[in-house]
Amino acid sequence: MQIENVDVEPRPSAWSLFLIFSRIGLSSFGGGLSGWFYREFVQDRKWMSEEDFLNGLALSQALPGVNVKNMAIWIGYRLAGARGAVAGFMGIIVPPAIFIILLATVFAALTEYSITNIALAGAAAAAIGLSASMAITTAIRVPRRVLPWIFVVTTFVAVGVLQWPLLWVVLGEGVLSVGIEYVRLLKKEA
């Protein structure tokens, strides 16, 4: 019997996750970080599947707090347990926060020059492009079923048209959608 040699990517250490999240956090400004996470962990390193990533992205957006921080914690936990979660959180928060404080000091001194505003507008445009790229990638892969669209439309109408409080709409529709999906999965397993 011959055992097939399969190349398996080794799981990262907490330190390597900290360094990866620090690099991403220090090199992306104004948003679009989920796009960088996708490229780094799914496409380049293949440490997680696209389905796992998108499930984590959905969970991170549903939880309270900053989505990117939630996603870093989730990815870190999936790849290296509790230490990975701490490394993801610290890597995405601490080095960029220190850098932003230093950068704010420099920008405060440069506000009288018009090039400063141009540079900030360029960074904002790049962040919008990365966010749009991630939204398109996610939208293409979302299963096409009627029920999710019903929730999208009813949420839009409730919050955008009827001006109901977002918190109560999201809580109500979140509980309802999770319940429906739970029942659907139970029927699928039976």
What is the compact description of this entry?
The protein has helices at residues 14-27, 33-44, 50-62, 67-110, 114-141, 146-161, 166-189. It has 190 residues and is mostly helical.
SSE map:
Elements: H1 14-27, H2 33-44, H3 50-62, H4 67-110, H5 114-141, H6 146-161, H7 166-189
The 3D shape can be described as globular
Mean pLDDT: 86
E-strand count? 0
Q: What class do helices, strands and sheet pairing give? A: mainly alpha
Distance between the termini: 37 Å
How much of the sequence is in beta strands? under 5%
* Main sheet specs: none
Rg, nearest Å: 20 Å
Q: Would you identify the regions where 5 or more consecutive residues have pLDDT less than 50?
A: 1-8
Note the total helix count.
7
Percent helix range:
over 70%
Reading the helices and strands in chain order gives: HHHHHHH
